[in-house]
Amino acid sequence: MNTQLRSVLLLTGFALTGTLAITLTKQATEERIANNEAAYRSQLLREVLLDTRYDNEPWNEAISVDDESVSAIYPVTLGDATVGEVVQINTNSGYVGPITMLIATDVNARIIAVRVSKHQETPGLGDAIDRNKSGWIDVFSGASIETPPTWSLKRDGGDFDQITGATITSRAVVNAVHDALLYKTKD
After folding, report:
1. pTM, two decimal places
2. I want to staple 128 with a disulfide (CB 3.0 to 4.6 A). Which of 21, 29, 106, 134 is the partner?
3. What is the side-by-side strand order in the sheet with 99-106?
4. How far, in Å, are 2, 17, 30, 136 from residue 8 at the CA level?
5. What are the pLDDT digits (tens) for 126-155?
């Protein structure tokens, strides 16, 4: 057998072995990854709903939304009564990249809590939007479309403090939370 054919067969063998290994690994870990993602979603849901009593699985009842920033709404019920909902909103206005948040509201469209579920903001500065890094995100609890009256940062004439050194990130979060409330009140 000539050297060129041997090299092609050897390379093909390595490629097939690598593909088989990746496929088997994916199959072996797929269920575990799905379970971990479900556990993470449940944890975020508990965090954003705080002490709200509910008996449904909002993640399983997602309402798809055809909107630029609102990607889904998750109804929260207790028995037959709606007790609130969780809005998933995305903004591309973060300093480093997109920010995805969950905003839980009660039946009066008052914010229960806001949690950031995904971001790439600068560690030590913009990552203070993460509840595990600082309590800044809690400033939205209890707010509604009317309260506070000016939905912008204090440096822009509004009612919200910014995270020191993270004006762009702070502005992106304030605007996204406001957009979620505006979306909820339009109809």
Report:
1. 0.82
2. 134
3. 63-64, 70-78, 81-91, 99-106, 111-118
4. 10, 14, 32, 59
5. 999 999 999 999 999 999 998 888 999 999
Polymer length of the chain? 187
CB 161 within 8 A of CB 154: yes
* 8 Å CB contact between 44 and 117: yes
Element (H, E) at 87: strand 81-91
Cα–Cα distance, 37 to 176 (Å, whole number): 24
List the structure tokens of 29: 């870990």
User: What is the spatial distance between Cα 168 and Cα 93, in angstroms, rounded to a whole number?
Assistant: 8
Residue type, 148: P
Which residue reads 């000016």 in tokens? 150
Q: Which residues of 109-139 are buried (b: 16+ CB within 10 A; e: fewer)?
A: bbbbbbbbbebebbeebbbbbbbebeebbeb
Q: Where are the domains of the chain?
A: 1-187
Tokens 């995805």 found at: 100
